[in-house]
Specification:
heterodimer; A: 221 residues; alpha/beta; Rossmann fold; nine-stranded mixed beta sheet; two-stranded antiparallel sheet; 11 strands; 25% strand; globular; B: 80 residues; alpha+beta; Mth169, Chain: A; 3 strands; elongated
Chain lengths: 221, 80
């Protein structure tokens, strides 16, 4: 599986995802600067976490209009898998690749801790390494993770099985219907607030994130 | 000409910053303050002499970048 990681000014989780991808696939991802206008031929594009453009205007708003995003949208529309984590999820909603928006956390504070997530389906290229209904523990680190969409959009997402992950037990940010991650209509684009890449080594305190990378590698290799 | 853009959160969308401002006002002793909603104000200088064209261009900017219409409304005012 070949992969590319997009780097924006203010991205800070590119090394975390690069290490996780290399561990899962044996191949380091290409790192692509936001000002580029084309991507290498890859099976997976990752928009990592961070604070692109200092979260100016809205989280992910400026990054979503960066030159490289035209190529990301074109690749996504051609069926290439796209994974947006944390700020990457915010960028995907701002770019229109995923519905809804990430509002500031309802409690007004930055949230940095491990959370429990339920894997809603194992029938996607992202979640084949898990069982449907399985609970996994991965960290979050965000200020704007409060997922919001209108009722009509939520009904469509739930009806089409497009909720990827939900928070179990405590909802750490007030997100509507406990949503932690969603898919696009073809389930080839996934955005999620938690950081599975930071739960891939025993020294992280847990390895529940490995299933995502194993699933992707199995599906895309 | 100059364009003034006001961006406000739609009704019903949680405004965490507005709530924090309201709390700070209360702690300063300002009583009687109800709901507080925070928005954005953006001023643009545009090289366009026709106010109608200027307004429609700025409205397009709002739809494409300045506002996220999932959660925000925008209002554009053109000044000569």
């Amino acid at each position: 599986m070949k992969s590319a990681v997009v780097l924006f000014p203010g991205t800070n989780r590119e090394r975390d995802i690069a290490v996780a991808l290399e561990r899962a696939t044996g191949q380091a991802p290409a790192i692509v600067w936001h000002a580029e206008t084309s991507l290498p031929k890859v099976d997976l594009i990752v928009l990592p976490g961070g604070f692109s453009y200092g979260d100016y205007l809205r989280s992910g708003a400026i990054a979503a209009r960066a030159p490289i995003m035209r190529a990301v949208v074109d690749a996504a529309e051609a069926g290439v898998a796209v994974l947006g984590i944390c700020n990457g999820f915010q960028i995907l909603t701002e770019s229109g690749l995923l519905p809804g928006v990430l509002l500031p956390n309802a409690h007004g504070k930055f949230a940095c801790k491990n959370v429990a997530l339920r894997v809603e389906t194992s029938q996607t290229i992202f979640t084949g390494g898990y069982e449907a209904g399985q609970t996994i523990t991965v960290p979050i680190a965000h200020h704007d993770g409060n997922y919001f969409a209108d009722d009509e959009t939520l009904a469509r997402l739930e009806g089409e099985g497009r909720i990827a992950f939900r928070y179990v037990g405590e909802n750490p940010n007030g997100s509507i219907r406990d949503i932690a991650g969603v898919y696009n209509a073809t389930k080839t684009v996934l955005g999620l607030m938690p950081h599975p890449e930071d739960a891939t080594d025993a020294r992280h305190g847990g390895t529940d994130g490995l299933g995502l990378f194993k699933g992707l590698t199995a599906a895309l290799s | 000409m100059k364009a003034k853009v006001h961006i406000t959160l739609k009704k019903g969308v949680l405004d965490v910053q507005g709530k924090a401002i309201g709390g700070a006002l209360a702690s300063l002793g300002f009583g009687g303050v109800g709901d507080v909603r925070q928005g954005k104000y953006i001023e643009l200088d545009i090289a366009e002499t026709d106010p109608a064209i200027a307004k429609s261009r700025v409205e397009e900017m709002c739809r494409k970048l300045l506002a996220n219409t999932v959660i925000e409304n925008y209002a554009v005012e053109i000044l000569r």
